[in-house]
Amino acid sequence: MRAYFNKLLNSSEQQKTLPLIYPLLIALTSGAIFSLALAPFYWWWIAILSPALLYATLHKRSAKQAFGIGWAYGFGLWFVGAFWLYTSIHVYGDTNAYLSVLMIAIMALVMGLFTAIQTWLYRRFFPETPLTFAPIWVFFEWAKTWVFTGFPWLFAGYAFTERLLDNYAPLFGIYAVSFVVILLAAALVEVLRKRVFWLIPSALLVLGAWAVSFIQFVEPKAEKPLSVSLIQGNIPQDLKWLTEYQVKTLEIYANLSRSEWGRDLIVWPESSIPLFQSDIKMFLSAMDDQAQSTHTAWVTGIPYWDLEESKVQGYPMYYNAMMASGSDAFGLYKKQRLVPFGEYIPLSGFLSWVLPALQNDPSMSGFSQGASDQKPFNIKGHHLAAAICYEVAYPNLTRRNAVDSDFLVTVSNDAWFKGTAGPLQHLQMVQMRAKENGRWFIRATNTGVTAFINEQGHIVKQAPTDQKAVLRGDLPAFEGRTLYNRLSDWPILIFSALLLLIGFRFRPRKVDVSFKSRR
């Protein structure tokens, strides 16, 4: 690899003689190693090395070749980086092992097209410079939040959660962090090509990350902290929805909560109640009475059947929801972002043979999408902005919910991915959302990682994974708004668009000629 990398940095004449197989293999490998920069490995420097190698392999390549190189990188990125899906597909989806791997490979091929199109556009329309490579990378990370309903995973900026560069998050969000990471990666290649002037902007970006850390957008309220208890039931996923285990599940959560009544807030995780609220009225009433008598607020994840809405629509309206009850507590939140193959199965009749075990899972029966204008929970005079599981992967959704909140709360069930990197990568996203919005994040999960995360995105306390646990904390409410919370992703997207427009306007004419000659 070292010999090849040296050749990449040599003259264009040498470039033309290199067989395409070499950049394809390097791109595939560099994409495959990217996830080592994220949890649970945290080798942040790979988030620099991996895109740097991609940038180097694209040097003097045609747009057609760049498409193949980018696709190889994207396939390696997603096949390895999202292989934690294997556990949910094979173990809990009861799908054949070979078919499970094939499904992940198909997913990687589809998601790899993002990078393929990205690199094709880069080499087709823009000059070779970090100032075009970084902004086009940002646009394609942003696209992953809405194309194909979105799969916003494996962003470069997450490698720097709790590391210097994440100080840009309260200003301009995760895409700004990714922009800096990719610019530094491409600048490294330029420096190795003896264009040492790229050391200056690189140093300024790192220095800027240190400088902006002194900007304080938010401050704690002059109120006593909120005492919170998080309940982690550790219910096995293969038992969770079995009819004969439903009462046992409720007993586990009720028993774990017994010593916590009297605190300000108790939170149960996503779908910790495995029954619709309409089927369990007596239990909910008893829990509300217990909470009222001990002056405690109670928030729980629960599948919610909106009976009135169902009458209007003429068919059942089911929601993956959170509800609040008890002392000085009210609110209902319906999940806005649903997971394909996780909360509903597209073309379920056609695909029933692919995931047979999931067809009998009530959580897969077809949830509806919650409205985008839902209000935060009101808990003891505080506003808690909610997010359910996968929703915290969407920066702007979390930002929008966080407006006018004192805390952020998320519930999740990552038991689908037990023993994989998925839950820990998920936790990194929660940390980044806390930093972007300047609020403490309360995170209750079924199997882990249950945690309290402060307004700087640092984990203050967390429960052990894969065991029953109660996590207690006293959390300060915060006020004020970060720049990102006010302006959303627009500043970094507009800045990136301007760089690309300038790059397109002043691109070398010989680049256009070279492409025309290849047609």
TrEMBL record:
Native organism: Acinetobacter lanii
Function noted in UniProt: Catalyzes the phospholipid dependent N-acylation of the N-terminal cysteine of apolipoprotein, the last step in lipoprotein maturation.
UniProt topology in membrane: Multi-pass membrane protein
GO biological process annotation, one example: lipoprotein biosynthetic process
Superkingdom classification of source: Bacteria
Signal peptide per UniProt: none
Record's protein name: Apolipoprotein N-acyltransferase
Name of the encoding gene: lnt
TM regions (residue ranges): 20-45, 66-86, 98-122, 134-156, 168-189, 196-218, 490-506
